[in-house]
């Protein structure tokens, strides 16, 4: 029963977001802000400067140029809200010449088996549970990436994404959208710098609603009948810096941080204004012989108001581990461990394979 109620709440929120007539609503396409790969999630997403594997197609496409293998694959699965929401990712990258790489990423975030109770009552006014139907609310992203080393400036890599977004709420509504991301990385001695601009042109989602499916119920309950609309995701800029420290002969530490600037209004983050808000993600990765990894991260720093009107600062700590066996890397991350309910902890598993 608890899961059914949560699914109904998620459906209600998703539907209202889709039905919004605002041109650029806050948190548009927010499923694309979660992140991919257990390594990046274990480090709270601080990847813009240091990512150099197939997941760079999401974090910063310029990082694809740092891949050492001819081909690289990655898969990830995670479950959120006590397993109600499923989050999956698949990525592929390959070198096309000595300076360029191509990548393809697929992301799916969905809540399945949501009960449709429109026909709960039969013609006699009695409840008939056999009339309950089920549907899914799913968000998809298809990301095509290109990265290239800049030969005239050693250490500089640039990249870009073209992404297609598809969102659906059962048969009630669906949307198609597209957008562009650009990124760059620069290595100066032991320091690495990165910049990633998501939705640089704005990502446009065109929503189409089957209003006839809900017209009668919405009319009876006084709700606004949804209309077709255009939703725009505003740009977001990410600036990252990282450095690797060698500790003795067999141990090393990678320290990284990302500053995330959003331009969709005031958010509850470290620095906020009506024009822009800035969030901070910090991560560390400890390694032994580059084969065993332990990761920590802090992000989602917010100021929370208590019942007595006082405020305090909260943050989301993340952790993860990884192991490299020949060309295979298996990673695990524990996220959302700042939640008060243990049942909402999220376990993320991913695997990466490199082939020559």
From TrEMBL:
Protein name as it appears in the record: PorV/PorQ family protein
Gene3D superfamilies referenced in this protein's UniProt entry, alphabetically: Outer membrane protein transport protein (OMPP1/FadL/TodX)
Domain of life of the native organism: Bacteria
